Amino acid sequence: MSDAFSLECPLPLQQYPHVLLAHGGGGRLMQQLIDTFTTAFANAELHRRHDGAVLTLADARLAFTTDAFVVHPLFFPGGDIGKLAVFGTVNDLAMCGARALYLSVSFILEEGLPMETLWRVVQSMQAAAQEAHVQIVTGDTKVVDRGKGDGLFVSTSGIGIIEHNQHFGPEAVRPGDAILLSGDIGRHGIAIMAVREGLAFETEIASDCALLSTPVLQLLEAGIEVHCLRDLTRGGLAAALIEIAQTAKLCFQLEETAIPVRPEVQSACELLGLDPLYVANEGRFVAFVPETEAARALDVLRKVPVSAGACLIGHVTTDDPNGLVTLHTAIGTQRILDLLSGEQLPRIC
Amino acid sequence: MKFIDEYRNREAALRYAQRIAKITTRPWTIMEVCGGQTHAIVRFGIDELLPPGLTLVHGPGCPVCVTPVELIDKALAIASLPGVIFCSFGDMLRVPGSRGDLFSVKAQGADVRIVYSPLDAVRLAQQYPDREVVFFAVGFETTAPANALAVLEAHRRGLKNFSMLVAHVLVPPAMEAILQSPNNRVQGFLAAGHVCTVMGYREYEPIAKKYRVPIVVTGFEPLDLLQGLYMCIRQLEAGRFEVENQYTRSVRRQGNLTAQQHIREVFEVVPRKWRGIGELPQSGLGLRAPYRAYDAEQKFGVAPLAAQEASECIAGEVLQGAKKPTACPAFGTRCTPEHPLGAPMVSSEGACAAYYRYRRFTPSYVSGL
């Protein structure tokens, strides 16, 4: 053996000349991609970086949002692509404090998709729309060659009406605010991974896919002062909070032990080397409210089944240009939560 | 969660931290060998609980980090061949070779798939008899038994379209390389619990004796790491240099004999090049002669590729524990997880990535104990 080490390292990959799957993973690469869009389409409403746009037309305040759904498999424990597409858009409107009224739907269908599959998705969307009290009032259909789509892609847009005078979003968050979470996290991501990869766990994990408009509208009807709402999707709780912290230029302090994770989700995460804080959800949201309103808000949320497990997970602390989210760990130390590059990757060992 | 929460108990962790502070009379430098331990230390902020003179340095035990760039380039070349299904564990996909990463070749049309077990790749080979299925066999002694089983299973099923790109490395030669380095400052080791679950720890006993360093086989939870550190410091303070086992719930001195037998059946010890360290004799595993038909390097005849280096990257010094990631001038600026200059910035087990995720900023209100 030689005394000196031959140090070596690869040439850097300065930037990706192609779109990677990681660009859709809810991490930093996706943020970069979104930045290019917001730069190109620049306007004040887009720069608020909220789940939907809030627009004033004549005397009415409306919320407007759009979302695309590309889940595989199309049907999974706890939901399917149709239910996701309706609830996802209605939930984004709810995060603007709006009652959803009308949706549009676009289908991109792959040649060869069984009609029966399409019909099941459509029926599921109809049932979801009924539950959400929205009407699907317009739509579009395209068919692509076999092999050029993954069976079925759905895109939905929605319009909702804002029937209160509160203005919320990341810019309304204040130091001292309480951060509330509507229930346990990580079930959707693990459920999808389990069916997609054929991972069998002792108990079946079902997606948390659910409608969030009821708890939000109840909060508003109870007259609770709300500063920001955000539903948790790709990138999980961590990505949602980091994005708000960075937009608001504030620090958040979370308590790890206050964040509920079901044992089966925790086990799956431990096994795969994943962090549940970064795993996707489809029926959970965070609410920023003044500390003085926290107890009352939790009372309201806990009376609604979908948010029965609502809890206080932390506070907004101070102004900070970096917008940091830190976690007070179970063993009493501090850890910074940062955006991942793309999706979480299962570890080697 | 049972068997996890007990090892993340706050009161017990603080008690151990106090015991460590009580017995530590001098500054010591201890290396945790395994990237999983590095990740846990930074994720749980364990270093915040330690007395100021105690320095933890992060070892070479991240399979993603030490796989040489030439081999990544070979993986990219094989994955790009028509008809190949290239299977890998998830975190290898972002490791840069000299001309891109597996994510990039996937985006350009290569069939690259993340698998959770090498046996998934064997199943794919059976499912697609007209395709060539290649598994990227990366890792230390921990992943070797499952990879050996995959070869044996492919052999049993008579699969001709399955092969492995083998990049297996062994821990003890890397520890010796670090101890022999003129700029070594490691005084004690936390050995990798999972590697020792497979291999046992008899092979560490001569190393402890020859280099007069204590080695404590240690687990991956906060209490494991604190107890491992306590045991290591207790030896250092007493001038002892023995191999001790903290991870008794998983590790036996002789290891898992069945797993070792599978490894010996399929693999033999070969010299290997380590990214950031260089070639070490007898430091890796390669396929034995009867199983050469499963060697993807031979099967696809990929030529050795000369790889260029990023001069700024100090991965070698980081992997040997000579420098902390934050000592690198490129850290967090020209080198980030999106645009890594070196492999330690890629894997979640890599020391640089762990520092980037958890330590990039030091908020003023964050304090230790």
From TrEMBL, chain A:
Gene3D superfamilies: PurM-like C-terminal domain, PurM-like, N-terminal domain. Residues 50-162 form the PurM-like N-terminal domain. Pfam families: AIRS (PF00586), AIRS_C (PF02769). One of its GO terms (biological process) is protein maturation. It comes from the Bacteria. Residues 174-320 form the PurM-like C-terminal domain. Transmembrane segments: none annotated. Belongs to the HypE family. NCBIfam families: hypE. PANTHER family: CARBAMOYL DEHYDRATASE HYPE (PTHR30303:SF0), HYDROGENASE ISOENZYMES FORMATION PROTEIN HYPE (PTHR30303). This is Hydrogenase expression/formation protein HypE. The lineage of its organism: Bacteria, Pseudomonadati, Rhodothermota, Rhodothermia, Rhodothermales.
UniProtKB/TrEMBL annotation, chain B:
InterPro entries: Hyd_form_HypD (IPR002780), HypD_1 (IPR042243), HypD_2_sf (IPR042244). It comes from the Bacteria. GO terms for molecular function: 4 iron, 4 sulfur cluster binding; carbon monoxide binding; iron ion binding. Keywords: Iron, Metal-binding. The keyword Iron applies. It holds the Pfam family HypD. One of its GO terms (biological process) is protein maturation. Belongs to the HypD family. This is Hydrogenase formation protein HypD. It comes from Rhodothermus marinus (Rhodothermus obamensis). The gene is hypD.
